[in-house]
Specification:
With 295 residues, this protein is α+β, with helices and mostly antiparallel strands. It contains 8 helices and 14 strands. Helix 1 packs antiparallel against helix 2, helix 2 packs antiparallel against helix 3 and helix 3 packs across helix 6.
Length: 295
């Protein structure tokens, strides 16, 4: 059956509109990222690119608008190795944490002397070799460094970790290439990530002090969260604890962020640029608040 003239005309008009937008962008100055995103949104609506592709492209643009301070692991959550201590005192912690790289110090926690690669420990015959000799140089970068520049430097220099310092030269955290890539592709899991984090259930976590603590998926329903923790958090605009937190903070928190809501202390264990994945929640006291917290 021949194509209806009106349908053909409409199709041609739509194609022409998209091409006009693309041509306009190509011929314009390179600072029109908003226009490019509009074109990509239009392409997504026409099913020329899928949602995952669009999300990744938007993630690339976020690198240009984000600084290291936005994604770094804060100093309070850094696990460092004091190479002046006997190997037996910390080798077990390295095996338990499962990270591939650790900042190394020599007694003074404010001075990083290098980066220890876990794989290098396999070649150590005895403790006398656990010295500066097996350390890799530490790279120091400012908090204000843009993520797109950092990613380029990581690739060019074959580095995977950098130590972040503030304007006074004090250590404020660390950042890895994984932290940067997660802004594009979302949360990256490795073989050391717990399977429990992907399950839709709340997992109690034992603490030496016996303080109640739970690992909780951000998609946990508010009703389940309140029932398990004995709380009465409320927000009529959301259904999950992740949504509640995002509304409470007014933003999507970063991995490593910590904050208090009432008698609860929260730590973000896993998150990407779009949403929270896993939380660690601790009750600062065991007395249940009888007054609902409403937003």
């Amino acid at each position: 059956m021949p194509e209806h003239p009106e349908h053909s005309q409409n199709t041609h008009k739509l194609a022409r509109t998209f091409l006009d937008k693309l041509a306009s962008f190509i011929s314009s100055e390179p600072d029109t990222r908003t226009e490019l995103l509009e074109i990509l949104q239009d392409a997504h609506e026409r099913k020329l690119i899928d949602s995952e592709c669009l999300s990744m492209i938007e993630g690339v643009f976020r690198l240009f608008d984000s600084a290291v301070r936005d994604v770094m692991v804060p100093r309070s959550r850094m696990y460092v190795i004091d190479i002046t201590r006997p190997l037996a005192e910390w080798i077990g912690d390295v095996q338990e944490n499962g990270h591939s790289r650790y900042p190394a110090i020599e007694g003074d926690g404010e001075k990083i002397v290098g980066i220890l690669h876990a794989k290098d420990l396999l070649h150590i015959g005895n403790e006398q070799y656990v010295t500066r000799d097996i350390l890799h140089p530490a790279i120091f970068i400012p908090e204000s460094k843009r993520l797109n520049v950092l990613l380029r430097d990581f690739r060019n220099n074959h580095n995977h970790m950098a130590i972040v310092v503030d304007e006074f030269g004090n250590i404020s955290g660390l950042v890895t290439i994984e932290d940067v890539l997660e802004q594009i592709v979302g949360d990256i899991e490795d073989e050391f990530d717990s399977d429990d984090e992907d399950e839709d259930r709340i997992v109690p976590v034992k603490t030496p002090a016996g303080t109640p603590r739970w690992r909780i998926p951000a998609l946990t329903e508010m009703e389940d969260f309140n029932r398990t923790l004995g709380t009465t958090l409320e927000d009529s605009r959301v259904d999950t604890i992740g949504g509640y937190i995002a509304n409470h903070l007014g933003r999507v928190p970063h991995k490593g962020d910590t904050f208090d809501i009432g008698d609860l202390h929260f730590e973000v264990l896993r998150a990407d640029a779009r949403r929270i994945h896993t939380l660690l929640v601790e009750k600062k006291n065991t007395v249940t608040d009888k007054n609902p917290v409403k937003l």
